[in-house]
TrEMBL record:
Name used for this protein in its record: Fucosyltransferase
Subcellular location: Golgi apparatus, Golgi stack membrane
Broad enzyme group: transferase
Family from the record: Belongs to the glycosyltransferase 10 family.
Entry-linked Pfam families: Glyco_transf_10 (PF00852)
Xref: InterPro entries: Glyco_tran_10_C, Glyco_trans_10, GT10-like_C_sf
Record key words, sorted: Glycosyltransferase, Golgi apparatus, Membrane, Transferase, Transmembrane
Native source species: Stichopus japonicus
GO CC, one annotated term: Golgi cisterna membrane
Length: 180
């Protein structure tokens, strides 16, 4: 938004009205929602984001680790039943904003086979979660690259990975953040 739009918002703001900055994306991805410096510290009263320091913490999901590693009690050969090697799904931010994820995957694809789905790839996948899960569960590995590598940012892809029974190849947060 332009400065004039921010000025108008502040001019018509009711006294005592609470404004909440709510997003699941890192600030680098959504610069238009950040007020100009003149309004930086008196626009939003509360924050509702993925970061633990927000007034309202809204992470995509979480997992609870087991006390000890689970054994393969079902006797399943996971490598054998998954016919495909690696997948990557991206819905936006192919190039530019923070880093070129598409180039990274294409470079990695020179060494290991990766099926690339979504707007940044060469294959399509259903937006229906159950149908997409059926396709992605066929892969041994899933490449999960955050569109921005910043503190505590783990997107919905990381959350979804927990149900695909694939080994994640991740780049985004720190190891400690993935372990939380």
């Amino acid at each position: 938004m332009e400065l004039e739009e921010w000025e108008a918002l502040h001019r018509y703001r009711s006294p005592g009205q609470i404004w909440i900055f709510a997003t699941q994306e890192p600030a680098a991805i959504i610069p238009d929602f950040l007020p100009p410096k003149v309004y930086r510290y008196d626009t939003y009263n509360w924050s509702f984001t993925f970061h633990s320091t927000s007034d309202i913490h809204g992470a995509y999901g979480w997992y609870t680790p087991h006390d000890k590693p689970r054994s393969n009690t079902r006797g399943i050969n996971w490598y054998q039943i998954k016919p495909k090697f690696a997948s990557w799904v991206s819905s936006r931010h192919c190039k530019g904003l923070v880093w070129d994820r598409t180039k990274f995957v294409k470079d990695l694809n020179k060494f290991i086979p990766i099926d690339m789905y979504g707007v940044c790839g060469n294959a399509t996948i259903s937006r229906n979660r159950d149908i997409a899960k059926g396709v992605l569960k066929k892969y041994k590995f899933h490449v999960s690259l955050e569109n921005s590598c910043c503190s505590e940012y783990l997107s919905e892809v990381w959350d979804a990975l927990q149900t695909w029974e694939s080994v994640p190849i991740v780049l985004g947060g720190t190891k400690e953040e993935y372990d939380k």
